Amino acid sequence: MTANGVAGVLCGRSPDWLPEHSRSLAALMGAGLSPLQAVEVLRRQYPALSQPLEHAMSRLSRGRSLSQSLGEGGFFGRHARILLEAGEFGGRLPEALRLIADRSEQHRRRLARFRARLWLPLLLLLIATLAGLLLNTRFYQLSLGVALADAGMSLGFVFLLTTLLLKLLKLDRSGWLYWGWRLGLGRTGLYRGFFEVGFYGLLSGMLDAGCDYVEALEHCRDLLDDRVYRGRVRIAQQALASGQDPSTALECAGLPLSPALRQLIRSAGAAGRLPQALGHHLRLEQQRLDLYLEAFYEWLPRIYYLLVIGIGLRYLLG
């Protein structure tokens, strides 16, 4: 399992870390508390997190950053840690924590709606399997053991499919980007949209925090744990260091870049307003991608209705 693999969850590998914890931490730090003081108050507010937060406090007291201290404790996935690092660099930790909380809450709501919609197709699947068991024993004259084995295989397949699907749906954005990159989806418009929001969103945040382009790309290299991807980011850094403009450097490096975004980077960069223009463009792109995600989660339970029909037809047709 890679660092961006099945284990990465948007706002935490620890099941106890909830969006409300990130918001509480953001409120405490927004009130002027240091990261160590804020974590100490959070530990007293949430006794269930007392022990892991004590470890985080120990790391903070040894000079580790908040993103390192909470990330090493398993509270945040890769993408959330990178957002937190960007917030640390730009002095915007409360804003980064609130953004992480909002995205985590949105992700949890989608998963909850998906699970709520599963009970009816799974109930129909169970009924279809029981009906098939009856057909096999009464009409096709199969022994009870063979019929039960057949029904068990059908239900076992659905159980494994559901388990795998839920694990995949829990991947954070970096996890999906990683697997999409490895599977060669970089040329597809949908993947490119998600990559742009993830990669160029981080780039925009680092530029807005005062990084130069080379330094900002250094932080963006952490988005995916893939040798080819990191090599391309390094090529872009070298091109920028040699004096090429950002759009040419990114395009020559082979990083996913839509024509609209390429033109925006070229024109806004020449005008000295790249962080603002890029941020506005990516907010609109995020809204478009959210619509796709909502439609995806709306249609996903219908896969199980197809399974019900398939299993039913298999029994009926013998």
Automatic annotation (TrEMBL):
Annotated TM spans: 118-135, 147-169
Keyword Membrane: yes
Chief localization: membrane
Membrane topology: Multi-pass membrane protein
Keyword tags: Cell membrane, Membrane, Transmembrane, Transmembrane helix
InterPro entries registered for this protein in UniProt: GspF/PilC (IPR003004), T2SS_GspF_dom (IPR018076), T2SS_GspF_sf (IPR042094)
Domain Type II secretion system protein GspF residues, every copy: 23-135, 199-300
Family annotation (Pfam families): T2SSF (PF00482)
Superkingdom to which the source organism belongs: Bacteria
Transmembrane among keywords: yes
Subcellular location: Cell membrane
PANTHER family listed in its UniProt record: GENERAL SECRETION PATHWAY PROTEIN (PTHR30012), TYPE II SECRETION SYSTEM PROTEIN F-RELATED (PTHR30012:SF0)
Family stated for the protein in its record: Belongs to the GSP F family.
Protein name: Type II secretion system F family protein
Organism ancestry: Bacteria, Pseudomonadati, Pseudomonadota, Gammaproteobacteria, Oceanospirillales
